[in-house]
Amino acid sequence: MDRQSGTSRPPGDDGMRDTMPQSGTGTVTGAVPETLTYGGNAAKIAEIDRRDGAMTNAETPAPRTVVPIEPTLLIAEVFDQARVTQLRHSVTSCAHASGLSGQRLDDFVLAVNELITNAVRHGGGQGRLRLWCQDGELVCEVADHGHGISSQRLSDRNRPAPDTAGGWGLWLARELSDTMAVETGEAGTVVRITAAVD
After folding, report:
1. What is the pLDDT of residue 79?
2. What burial letters (b/e) apply to 137-175, b meaning 16+ CB within 10 Å?
3. How far apart are CA 62 and CA 165, in angstroms?
4. Is residue 109 within 8 Å of residue 93, measured between CB atoms?
5. 78 vs 126: CA distance, rounded Å
6. pTM above 0.90, yes or no
7. Tens digits of per-residue pLDDT, 37-73?
8. Phi, psi for 13 (deg, rounded to 5)
9. In terms of CB atoms within 10 Å, which of 16, 37, 121, 173 comes out highest?
10. Helix (H, G, I), strand (E, B), or coil: what is residue 30?
11. Domain range list for the chain
């Protein structure tokens, strides 16, 4: 139902034609009708009158507002132990499609795998992974709801001893990525790694 005229319209009719002069009615003497298409939708056309190079019954277009494009997420997924392998394959595919290859690809995927495995083992059994490209870098963020990482553990950048059963995850992630940032506390941990893409 048209709010202004009180008449009903067929589906898809937004009323644009109702505001334009109809062919043969209300036209200016000597004007030549011209057909325009709105928004690429050929079903929505309207006739306007053109005289002496100027359009009649046309308004000045409003200035456009340019909104910055935010990075598009390649992966945004909650995972648990059962999803680790499938998620690793998804990261591999997306990282390769984004420009990583060879040893760089293998290193990045191994770093991500260490982070998601840590989240499952030490972060409450599940986590959240987000992967995106930004400013020439592939960025991966893994978050969990564990009890956090001690400052001593975070500050220790030494390679774990070969006979150490655990403690390799963060060290490997740091070594195999270009950058690594960690935010941790009692509510959980967020680790973000990056790799430059070609």
Report:
1. 97
2. bbbbbbbbebebbeeeeeeeeeeeeeeeeeeebbbbbbe
3. 65
4. no
5. 7
6. no
7. 334 443 433 443 444 444 445 555 556 655 555 578 9
8. -90, 115
9. 173
10. coil
11. 1-61, 73-196
Report whether 190 contacts 124 (CB < 8 A). no
Give a three-class secondary structure readout of 153-178.
Answer: HHHCCCCCCCCCCCCCHHHHHHHHCC
Quick one: pLDDT band at residue 19, thresholds 50, 70, 90?
very low
Name the token pair of 110: 């191994």
Between CA 152 and CA 147, with CA 169 as vertex, the angle to 5 degrees is 55
At 43, give phi and psi (nearest 5°). Answer: -75, -20
Specify the length of the chain in residues.
Answer: 198
DSSP 56: S
Half-sphere exposure of residue 169: CA atoms within 13 angstroms, side-chain side: 20
CATH C-level class of 73-196: alpha beta
Q: Which residue matches tokens 């009890």?
A: 147
